Amino acid sequence: MPQINILPKHLAELIAAGEVVERPASIVKEIMENAIDAGADKITLEIQRGGVTYIRITDNGCGIERSEVRKAFISHATSKITNENDLNSILTLGFRGEALASIAAVSRVEMMTRARGEEIGTRYCIEGGEEILLDDAGCPEGTTLIVRDIFYNTPARMKFLKKDVTEANAVAGVVDRIALSHPEVSIRFIRDGKDVLFTTGDGKLESAIYNVLGKEFASTLIPAEYELEGIKVSGFISKPFNSRPNRTMQFFFLNSRFIKTRTGLVALEEAYKNQIMAGKFPACVLNIQANAQSVDVNVHPAKTEVRFANEKMIFNAVYYCAKSALSDDVSRVQANIQQKQKQFLQKQYMPQPVSGKQIKIYEQQLEKVSKEDFWQKTTADEFRAVPEKKQEPLNVASKLVFRDESVFKVEKDSFNLIPEKETVKIEVVEEKADFPAVVEEKKTEVCLPEPNVVKESEVVRFDVVEEKEIPEIEPYRVIGEAFKTYILVEQGEKLLLIDKHAAHERMLFEKYRAAQDSIETQMLLVPVTVTLSKEEYSAMLDNLEILSKAGYSIEDFGSSMVILNECPTAVADADLAEIVMELAGYLADNRKEIIPEKLDWIYHSTACRAAIKAGDRTSAFELNSFVEKLLNNPDIRYCPHGRPVLIELTKRDIEKNFGRI
Fold this sequence. Notes:
- By secondary structure, this protein is of the alpha+beta class.
- Helix content is 33%, strand content 21%.
- α15 crosses α19.
C-alpha cells in the first residue's frame, strides 16, 4: 500500500487555486464581486496584456480594517457566512472565502485599503502565498487590489493561457455581465491604456444595455416584467423580427448573479414559438428575483450553475413574462418611402447653394429639371394619342471592297440584316475599282539565316497526358418542375426527381473549395457593422485570415463590434449582418477544429445562402442547363448536409404501383 502523505501548505493552496483561478477573467470576476458585496457603487478596472501581467481594481466600498487584512488572505476566511444555516439563504455574490487566498497563491498581489472611520490606510503585499509587507499607506476609503504576473510560480499553468487579445476579451465578457447585473454600479474599464467601457450607474437597466451592448442592440429590445407566486422576472427581450442565429445574446441573472439556466432558456424560446423562424433564437437580459431559500448556488466554484427547488415555477414565470411582453408589443417593421420630389431632386442632384445669385441659378435649374419630368408633363392618355414614329431602315454599304482576294474570301450568300426581310448582297470587285493605281512591287531576294541544328540530347521532351474520357450520359428529357422545387427528368427507363436547391448548393460548395483564395468577392458600398458577444468577438478576431480566404473581409471595429467590408459576390444581396453573426457563433463554439474543417463549414454556409431556394421561379432554359451540368458531374449526388440531390424511379416501379405488371 502506498504511503499517505500530508501535502505542504503551499502545494495544497496551489491545488485549491486551480479550482478558482483559471485565467485573468476569473480573478477579475472574484474581485469585482467582492467590491460589490462591500457596497461599492463605483469600480474602476485596468488591465494590461489581457490581464496576464497587470490587473488593478479600485472600488469605493467599505474597505478592510488593518486587523482583518491578514485574515482576508487565509483560505476559507469570509465575512459572508457564519454558520451552516447561512448557506440556505445566500444573497451575496461571494461566500466561499477562497478568492483572495487562491489569487495570492499564484501571483504577486498588492492591496491598499482604508476602512470607513480610519485615518490611515493599509498597504499589504503577498507573493505566492507568502507575506512580504504590511505597512501604513495614504489612500481613499475603499480598496485597491493590484495583481501582477499570474502563474509566475506555476509555469505549467502559464502555457495554457491564450493570446493577450483572447484573454482581454474574456475579461471584457466578465465586466459586461457584471455591469448588466448591477446597473446601479458605475463601472469603468481601461484596457491597455484605453477606456473601452463606462456605465453611468444610474440604476436603469436600459442605460447599462445601451453602454455595454450598443445602441443598435438596445433598439431591438422591448421591456418585460412579470410576477408569479413570489418570483419576479424583469428586464428586456428582443422583438420577434430581431431574432439572432445563436443564443450568445441571452443573459439570465438570479438575484443579480449571472447564471446559466436551461430552464429559463427553454421557457423563453417556448414563448417565441410560432413567432420566429426555425433556427433563430431570441435575445434577452432578464433578472429573476426569487427567495434565496428556494435556490442553491453552492453547486460549482464558478457559481454560475444553480439548482431551483421548483423548476416548474421558474419556467412559468419566465414564459409568461416573455409571452405578455410580446402580446403587448405592437411594433412592426416600418418603411418610410414618401418624400417630396423637389426635396429629393435638390438633395440628390443639386449641390447646396451658398448665397447670392447662386440661389436663383439653382432654383432655375431645379424648375427646369422638374418641367422635363415625363410623368408630370404627359398623362397616359396623352401619351397614347401621340402618333408612333416609324423606324428608319438601317443604312448598310452596298459594296465591300477588298485589296486581296487571296486573304479575304467572301461568300456570295446574302445576310438578313434588316427586319423587313430586306437583304444586302456583298460583292467582291476588282482591286483597282475604288482605289488609286497600285505601284508594282519590286521583287527582292531575302537571305534567310541557316536554321540551327538542335542536338537530340538538347531536345526537351514532354510527357503526353491522356485526357480523362468523360462518359457520355444517356439521353434525357426535362419534363418540367414540381412545386417550384423538384425538377422532373425522363432518362431512358428512369424518372429522376432533382432537388434544385440541394444540387445547386453542392455545386457552389465544390466551386468554392476549388477556388480557395480566388473566390469572387464584392466590395460593399456601405460597410456592415455587427455587434457580437465577447466570445464571438474574440473568435472572429482569431480567425480573420480564414474568413479572408473564404471571401469575407472583416476588421475589428472596437467595443465588441466588427465591420464587414467585402463578401462573396454570391451572397452580396443576402442579410450580411446575419451571416456575420452565424459565422461568429460557429467559430466561437468550434475553436479547436482544424482550419480545413472551419473553411469547409464557411464554404458550406455561403453555398447554402447563395443557392437557389425552393419556391424560386426557374425558366426552361435554366432548367435544361442545370440538369445538363448536374448529369455530367457524377460527383454531385449529395448536398453538404448529406441529403440526396436526386432520386431515381424506374419505369418498372411506376408500372408496378399502377398494377400494370
